[in-house]
Amino acid sequence: MFLVFLYLFLQPLAIIIMNHKTPSIKSILEASIAVKQQLLQQDLILEHIQEAIDLMVHCFQAGGKVLFCGNGGSAADAQHLAAEFSGRFYYDRAPLFAEALHVNGSYLTAVANDYSFDEIYARIVQAKGRTGDILVAISTSGNSPNVIKALQQAKKIGLTTIGLTGEKGGLMEAHCDLLFNVPSSDTPRIQECHILIGHTICQLVEERIFGATKP
After folding, report:
1. pLDDT tens, N- to C-terminus, the chain (215 residues)
2. Residue 80 annotated as binding site
3. Domains in the chain and their CATH numbers?
4. Which of 15, 76, 121, 175 has an alpha carbon 20 to 30 Å from 159's alpha carbon atom?
5. Rounded distance, CA 19 to CA 155, Å?
6. Any signal peptide, and if so, which residues (predicted)?
C-alpha cells in the first residue's frame, strides 16, 4: 500500500518536471541580444549617452569626481564602472576620480546600525559630494530607498544626477537629470545593458580626455 501511495504522490510531480522546459543556452543569449538591439533603436538612450559623456568630460576636466552607488549586483556594477575610470579602460593614462560608495564596510555597517540602511549613501554623498560632481545611481527597479535618498541629497548640494534603471524607472525618474531606462523588466538583462552603457560612456570619455595619448 505504501508503494502505491508513493507512486500516486510522485507521479504528478514527475510529469511536471518532465514538462518543465529549461531555457536553452541559445535562448538566454538571444534574449540578451534582443534587449541590446532594442536599446540601439532608442534615440533618446543614444542622446543620453552623449549627454553623459559631455557632463563627465566637463566634470573631470574641472577637477570634479564621479560617484557611483547601487545594491547587490548594481553595487558590483557601480564598483566595476568606477574602476574603469579610476584605473584605466583602453588608455595608459592618469586616473580619473571615480568611486563606488559602498566599498568601506566599516562605514556601511556603522551607519546602517546607528541610523538605517536607507541612509548609507546619502550621508557619504553629503560628506564627499561637491557642486559640479556627478552621482551615478544604479537600480534595476528604480525604487531602492537608499539610492533614492542618495539622489535627493545629491540634488540638494548641486551634483548632477544620472540614473541607470529598467523600463519603468520607478522613483528615480523624479530625481535624475539623466535617466537611462533599459527596455526590459528582466533584472539580468537590465544589468547587462547597464554595463554596456557604462562601458560605452567610459570609452568615449577616456577618448575625449586622453585622445592624444597612445593606448
Report:
1. 544 444 455 555 555 444 556 889 999 999 999 999 999 999 999 999 999 999 999 999 999 999 999 999 999 999 999 999 999 999 999 999 999 999 999 999 999 999 999 999 999 999 999 999 999 999 999 999 999 999 999 999 999 999 999 999 999 999 999 999 999 999 999 999 999 999 999 999 999 999 976 65
2. yes
3. 46-210 (3.40.50.10490)
4. 76
5. 52
6. none
What residue type is assigned to position 129 of the chain? G
Determine if residue 73 is labeled as part of a ligand binding site. yes
Report whether 181 belongs to an annotated binding site. no
* Eight-state DSSP code of residue 171: G
Flag whether 191 is marked binding. Answer: yes
pTM metric for this prediction? 0.88
Is 113 known as a binding-site position? yes
The answer to whether 114 is annotated as binding is: yes
118 is in an annotated binding site: no
Task: Give SS3 for 117.
Answer: helix
- Return the closest-CA partner of residue 64 out of 72, 73, 55, 77: 55
- Looking at residue 23, the DSSP 8-state letter turns out to be P
